[in-house]
Amino acid sequence: MTGVEIINRQQRKVLKVSNIFNTIGVGLNLVGIMGAQAPIHIILILSYFFIIVCLSVKEYIFKDTNLRYMIGWRLLLAQLLICIKMVLFVFSNSPNTSLMITTHMAVFTIILLFSLLAYLKCFTYILSLIAIVSYTFCAYIINSHDMWRNLPIYILLFSVGVFLSSMLTRGISAVLSDNEKYKVDMQEALATLGMTENEFNAYIELTKKNKKENKVTLDIFNIIGDRAREMLKQNVIHLVEQDKIVYDKVGELIPEFTPSEVEIAKLIIEGKKIGDMISILDKKKSNITCQRTKMRVKLNLSTEDNLRDAILKRVNIEQPS
Length: 321
Hints:
Arc Repressor Mutant, subunit A
């Protein structure tokens, strides 16, 4: 699963939960639990609910799948509704005005939490600003000592929300950027290796189950980072190219070798022992020994001559011992 798919899945969950939260909130408001049932309140709540329904219908008809804006506009409308209700409470001269404002600030905080979970950087700034301005305005009108005393706490709370939102969005952007770079690097490596992604994954699984000498390869893939991945890609490309050069030189410069003997000659150049050849080529020891003998005959070697040195001399390349 890609980084974008993970974010979309997270935002879909936030959208679903926020819709449930909206429905419950509208119901509680209509029965008067979160505010008086004055006609103006009912009109506001029903208008808000109507706008949300219209947005949902529009998104369904036009197949709008931008989850960021779908969530952001819903949260912004909810924030504006609460802001208007707070102002109405201030001018209603109700004895419970301070309590209702505090309750609505708690709802502001929940809305801010939704914006954080959905990675809505810009919307988080706007939501926090609306909350602080609304509370400050109410405190100024009521001129309550308790409300002024709580103002720095709310400013700190929403400032932390903005800071966390900024950190989250920067982190997500970095992850997405690294993910895209990884996909490009992987495609280049697969193209160079001539492998599909499924074949490459199968190779990794085989590496985990196979020989002990493959443990180094497994360890690299387990701890690999961006820089190491780039180095690995370049090394793989280099090794594949070198391997092809060596193979081609053996086949071209020692034409008397059969294809099977060319494979053995290549492994001899790489310094592989007979035991390694048995494992790599999946052949019996007697078969490989017989072919090595035929190769020595074709190269006119005596028993004292080194087969590897003779092959290297014929293909005119240097390999470390």
